Every structure is written in C-alpha cells, then in structure tokens.
Amino acid sequence: MSRPVSSASNNQNNAQQNIFKVMLLGDSGVGKTCLLVRFKDDTFLSGSFIATVGIDFRNKTIVINDKQVKLQIYDTAGQERFRSVTHSYYRDANALLLLYDVASIISFNNVRVWLSDINEYAHSDVVVMLIANKVDKTSERVVTREMGEKLASEYDVTHIETSAKTGLNVEFCFKAIGQALLQQVDSTVSNGESPSKTLNNLVQLNDQSHKHTLCCSFS
Known about the structure:
The chain is an alpha/beta fold. It has helices at 32-41, 83-90, 105-109, 111-121, 145-155, 170-185, 195-217, and strands spanning 7-10, 16-25, 55-64, 67-76, 95-101, 127-133, 158-161. The protein is globular and about 45 Å long. InterPro entries: P-loop_NTPase (IPR027417), Small_GTP-bd (IPR005225), Small_GTPase (IPR001806), Small_GTPase_Rab (IPR050305).
C-alpha cells in the first residue's frame, strides 16, 4: 500500500491547502531548533537554551505557486536516548532535514548513522536534505563544503549550507522542500521529475544565484 504524500483541507476561502510533515534530525547541538525558530519567527536563539526533549512541533503555512502549503515541522532531540522515540515518526514524514554542525567533526561523522536510520525506518520515497549548519562560524569550521557534498553524493541526497544565525538559506530550505513535495501531488506543477530531483535542481539554481551575486559584487 502506498502512503499519501500529503493531506488537504479547505479554509474559509475554500482554497485547498496541502499539508506536509517535515522532520529535523541530527545530533544534539547542531542547530535544529535554531533553524526552525529562524524559519518560523525570523529570530535567532542566542545564548544558552534547554535542549529539545523528545519531539517539539510547529506549523507554518507558506505560499508556493499561488497554493497554500502547510508544513508540520517536527523538531527532534538529538540525544541517543531519544532515538527510539523519533524512529516512530519517520514513516509518516514526507521530508527529512538532516543537520550537522560544520564546526563539529563528530556531528558530521554521525551523519552516516542518521542516514542508516533513515534507510531503515523511513519510506523509500522520503525527500532527504543534508544541511551543513553554522557556516557563519568560519574560524571554527572543520567540515569543508567539499566534504559535505562528497558525503551527500555518496548517499544520493541534496546538500546545502545554512546559518540559523544569519538566516542564510534557511527560508529557502523549507520553501524548496515544500515546492518539491507539492509537485508530487499537484499535476499542474509536476514536470515528471521526482521530488528529490526537483529539490536538487532548486538547490543548484540557488547556489548559482549566490555565486552570480557574489561575482557581481566584486565586479
């Protein structure tokens, strides 16, 4: 039996709303909650704060191609003792955002463990995005962009760099995920590509746009 990729509801204006479940995964301290808060409220959680315990949950509705898309975003605890709890949520997820901290080689090395869990517990058609977070920490960085891209290529997942502190690519990540999932259920925007392929193309276009902007700023 194939799983539904989204559900739909009608608001007061009778407009259809697509609903997708998105999970944030990764070691404790990689910035999952900060990434979510930056996207949801456009603020940064500075200073010390309590680590997520179990599962936290937030909604945000965005508009893509003139269509309402509601993202149900699950922020998961990264500690080992909570893994069995989060595993039960994998199968209902439409997309998984797997984070590591570019200033932590341990969090990067543990990406393989997380990807193994995804392979075991998630559906085969789940959309996965590998996120290199905290790229603002340039002086402390130990994981290069090339290392991240090589690992992503090995597992055939999309790779992108973000900073919850500066906001770099944060909103884009969630909107790209929404657009990729929307094409899966909406024949008017489908182009025959898989959601994962669409996501990868969107990220490549975004990278090219950033490079062009950078080049122009120095011309």
